[in-house]
């Protein structure tokens, strides 16, 4: 097994029995996960591999948050403590965590009824309101813990880290909506960016577009991905020239957020959410923006449009449970739209890193930006109406 975890040394730290089987879960862009079967049961073993999210103190903070949320009844999967009470096991300089195995499946927005869309929005609102209760914000205002950089739509179709359990129901077009705001102002990386800063600088984006176009033209042999990339880059440059004066100011009210809320980080058992997983991007950010980003992932259609009736049901429930105002959501819609307009993380992974795992997400994600720009008022109305 590639990158096999040191099971003997790890399990000696836990009262979890002896290993019988350990199978990798290939659904993470940043970290590594394994379904572990021992003489005591089934577990999810997470290897916190990404250097920008793997600091033991940051992992411990995520663990404290999920433990406190679980005490409030939020569906999460807190880590299991080792014999010494710690939840982060460091072996050979690598950080690991052991979680209960959660049986369940992922469901994208097309698989949800309008009522279930409302319950999804209410769940995220409860997460935000509960985090406000259990996590201190003082000292974190305007700050974002170290981020990697969809992580997105998530792994080569999956999410910002390895998941805590369950089985994906088939295609992974979720992170496909392109929710990984590596904007033109940021260095290449994975799926997430600092949402608390001012909107992306269009001058930097124009320069990035020129650089990516040059890379596309140099790529040999040229293929259909190159053709689509060139078309979308030219199209995006024209859109940005048209809307260059709409750069948004700094974000709205901040608070602790999950940071990567999308279908592959939410497990359902039947019709009910069983666990929200992958808290690697827990941080202090504008909360309403997470709600908008999540909707743009859950409710994107293959052609790159949003299911606005479902967005409306989701957003109404979110506003109610999170205590968010329509004006906050309207401002968040504008910032996330601008973020997407300036976002090229998928192309940067492809042409700068040679990493093609996010390629299947690109058609829908790049089409969504164009559609969102054209239907801006309708999208905004769905979030605030």
The number of domains: 2
- Structure class: alpha+beta
Give the helices and strands as they follow along the chain.
HEEEHEEHHHEEEEHHHHHH
Strand order of the largest sheet: 1-2-3-5-4
| Arithmetic mean of pLDDT | 85
Biggest sheet details: 5 strands, antiparallel
CATH fold node name of the largest domain: Aminoglycoside 3'-phosphotransferase, Chain: A, domain 2
Measured between the Cα atoms of the first and last residue, the distance is 51 Å
The shape, in one word, is globular
Q: At CATH's second level, what is the architecture of the largest domain? A: Alpha-Beta Complex
Q: How many E-type strands? A: 9
- The CATH class designation of the largest domain is Alpha Beta
Question: Which residue ranges are poorly predicted, with pLDDT under 50 across at least 5 consecutive positions?
Answer: 141-196
How helix-rich are the residues, as a percent range? 25-40%
Q: What does the radius of gyration come to?
A: 20 Å
Characterize the structure shown.
The protein is α+β, with helices and mostly antiparallel strands and 385 residues long. It has 2 domains: 7-100, Phosphorylase Kinase, domain 1, CATH 3.30.200.20; 109-384, Alpha-Beta Complex (Aminoglycoside 3'-phosphotransferase, Chain: A, domain 2). The protein is 40% helix and 13% strand. It has 11 helices and 9 strands. The strands form 3 sheets. The protein has a 5-stranded antiparallel β-sheet. A two-stranded antiparallel ribbon has the order 6-9. The chain has a two-stranded antiparallel sheet with strand order 7-8. A hairpin with a 2-residue loop joins strand 2 and strand 3 (41-48). Helix 3 (114-134) runs parallel beside helix 7 and helix 7 (308-322) crosses helix 11. The chain is globular. It starts with 6 loop residues before the first helix and ends with a helix. Mean pLDDT is 85; it is low at 141-196.
């Amino acid at each position: 097994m590639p990158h096999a975890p040191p099971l003997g040394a790890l399990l000696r730290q836990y009262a979890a029995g002896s290993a019988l089987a350990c199978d990798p879960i290939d659904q993470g862009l940043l970290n590594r996960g394994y379904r572990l079967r021992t003489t005591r049961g089934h577990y999810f073993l997470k290897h916190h591999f990404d250097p920008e999210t793997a600091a033991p103190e940051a992992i411990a903070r995520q663990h404290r948050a999920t433990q406190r949320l679980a005490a409030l009844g939020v569906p999460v999967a807190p880590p299991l403590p080792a014999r010494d009470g710690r939840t982060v096991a460091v072996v050979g300089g690598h950080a690991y965590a052991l979680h209960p195995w959660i049986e369940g499946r992922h469901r994208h927005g097309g698989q949800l009824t309008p009522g279930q869309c409302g319950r999804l929005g209410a769940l995220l609102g409860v997460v935000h309101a509960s985090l406000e209760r259990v996590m201190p914000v003082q000292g974190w205002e305007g700050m974002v813990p170290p981020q990697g950089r969809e992580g997105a739509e998530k792994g080569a179709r999956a999410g910002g880290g390895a998941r805590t359990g369950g089985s994906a129901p088939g295609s992974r077009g979720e992170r496909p909506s392109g929710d990984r705001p590596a904007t033109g102002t940021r260095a290449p990386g994975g799926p997430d960016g600092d949402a608390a800063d001012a909107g992306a600088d269009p001058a930097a984006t124009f320069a990035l577009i020129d650089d990516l176009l040059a890379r596309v033209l140099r790529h040999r042999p040229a293929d259909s991905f190159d053709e689509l990339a060139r078309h979308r880059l030219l199209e995006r440059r024209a859109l940005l020239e048209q809307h260059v004066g709409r750069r948004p100011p700094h974000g709205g009210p901040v608070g602790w957020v999950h940071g990567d809320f999308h279908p592959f980080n939410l497990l359902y058992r039947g019709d009910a959410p069983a666990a929200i997983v992958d808290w690697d991007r827990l941080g202090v950010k504008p909360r309403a923006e997470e709600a908008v980003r999540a909707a743009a992932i859950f409710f994107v259609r293959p052609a790159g449009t949003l299911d606005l009736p479902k967005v409306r049901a989701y957003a109404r429930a979110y506003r109610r449970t999170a205590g968010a105002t329509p004006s906050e959501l309207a401002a968040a819609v504008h910032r996330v739209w601008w973020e997407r307009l300036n976002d090229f993380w998928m192309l940067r992974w492809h042409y700068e890193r040679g990493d093609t795992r996010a390629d299947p997400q690109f058609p829908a994600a790049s089409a969504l930006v164009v559609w969102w720009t054209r239907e801006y008022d309708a999208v905004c109305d769905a979030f605030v109406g």
